[in-house]
Amino acid sequence: MEFRFSKKVSQISGAAIEEILKYAGDPTVISLAGGNPATETFPAAELGEIAQELLTKQPSLALQYNTPRGYAPFRELLTARLRDHDNIGREFDDLFIVTGGQQAVDLLTKVMCDEGDVVLVEEPSFVGALNAFRSYGAKLVGVKMEDDGIDVAGLEAALQANPNAKLFYTIPSFHNPTGITTSYEKRKAVYALCAQYGVVILEDNPYGELTFDGEKLPTYKSMDGEGIVLYCNSFSKVLSPGLRVGYAVGHKDLIQKMVDSKQTCDVHTPILNQLMTYEYLKRYDIDAAIAKMRVLYRDKCQVMLDAIEEYLPKSITHTVPKGGLFVWCDMHGDYDTREVAQYCAQRKVVFVPGCTFMVDDQAPCSAFRLNYSTMENARIVEGVKLLGEALRNFMK
Ligand SMILES: Cc1ncc(COP(=O)(O)O)c(C=O)c1O
Predict the structure, then answer these.
(1) Which residues of 95-118 are buried (b: 16+ CB within 10 A; e: fewer)?
(2) Same domain flag for 312 and 270
């Protein structure tokens, strides 16, 4: 049967990524294409013990249906933690539990956007979010990224040109895919612009804790006197992505609509996973664990940056992230890194071509994303060296 798919999903294709991941599954290929957190950071023994205890002592809680908003004591603990650590949350705000930060992006779009409404995005941006916007028929308008965050004049022009803009999606710290952090000055300017034009800021902060030098800039949500920011985050990068436990903080009217909509998606985030996260936070010092992750990723990032300096052609520029999991490289000129990626994959090294993260993902793009989070240091060096050789040959 020929399926008659909706127009909304016709714009979404995972083909480019699947093509690359096909090679990444081959153990003889070095993949710089991933984005997973390092497995050794998962507290498997601690979580195993907690799960065992929950299932034996509280099965009627851990295995029963629960509320769409999330387990109340867990919400209270997170609300207090965000207030004390990050100055997030005002009297008009509420917090609810989502199935990974990705679900907050999806639900906010669902409650805010009719087909044809505009979502303003940093360009490049996280493909999972771009596809969520596309899946509701939203029109994406990209504004280019600079070394210190979005081009603010470009954002203002886009706001002026698109009166039906509903959302501005941003990853202000250790951005995926570029690794860039938006400066405090730009955050203030962007917040003021969005408030002026009545556009909701969707602040996605999954890498915010993974700062290499301990510096954390104020979030948009911490500046949010008018209740225009929906802040989302998760435990994916600091505990386990497989648990799928995330949270969103926003004006209570917005959260209420998102909670209502969550009921048609998955009813509630798996309660066992919420309880495991909650108990872990009560029993263990997650900040100490995060401090170790910062060092681990900082060191791996440095290994990759040194290898890039040594092995990649000098004409290729790269970002120098202060946190997170990614480095963004640009070959400049007429290169289409989709083609380059195929060429490199045959030479046993893969990366993600830049077009994947663009509003127009069919147009050629000379940039690409590298990741360092899961590999041994020696393999990072080997991968970048192979990449350098392949790129030099390609560019000849
Ligand atoms: C920028 C960004 N946002 C959201 C997500 C989704 O994360 P999760 O749903 O696991 O919380 C990711 C995952 O890689 C990401 O990079």
Answers:
(1) bbbbbbbbbbbbbbbbbbbeeebb
(2) no
The reply to whether the predicted model has a pTM over 0.70 is yes
For residue 313, is it left (φ>0), alpha (ψ between -120 and 50) or beta? Answer: beta
Averaged pLDDT for residues 335-349: 95
Taking only the tens place, the pLDDT of each residue in 298-327 is 999 999 999 999 999 999 999 999 999 999
Mind listing the pLDDT tens digit for each residue in 218-269? Answer: 999 999 999 999 999 999 999 999 999 999 999 999 999 999 999 999 999 9
DSSP-derived 3-state class of residue 96: strand
Surface-to-core class of residue 208, CB atoms within 10 Å of its CB (0-12 exposed, 13-18 middle, 19+ buried): buried
Is 4 inside a domain boundary? no
Assess whether 191 and 334 both reside in one domain.
no
**30 vs 382: CA distance, rounded Å:** 8
Clarify whether residues 222 and 360 are in a common domain.
no
> Among 160, 164, 124, 127, which Cα is nearest to 142's?
124
Q: 330 and 216 share a domain?
A: no
Count: domains in the chain: 2
Let me know whether 155 and 268 are in one domain.
Answer: yes
Residues 191 and 102 in one domain: yes
138: in domain: yes
pLDDT at 46 over 70: yes
CATH at 307: 3.90.1150.10
Nearest ligand 1 atom to the CA of 236 is 10
Binding site membership of 171 for ligand 1 (Cβ less than 6 Å):
yes
Bridging pattern class, strands 352-353 and 367-371 = antiparallel
Give me the domain span that covers residue 339.
9-42+288-395
179 lies in the same domain as 258: yes
The overall average pLDDT reported for the chain is 96
| Ligand 1 midpoint to CA 235 (Å) | 10
Q: In the numeric block, which tokens belong to residue 345?
A: 């994959």
Is the C-beta atom of 224 inside 6 A of ligand 1?
no
Structure tokens of 276? Answer: 């495991």
Write the residue with the smallest CA distance to atom 6 of ligand 1.
102
| One domain for residues 235 and 176 | yes
Query: Quick one: which atom of ligand 1 is closest to the CA of 235?
Result: 11
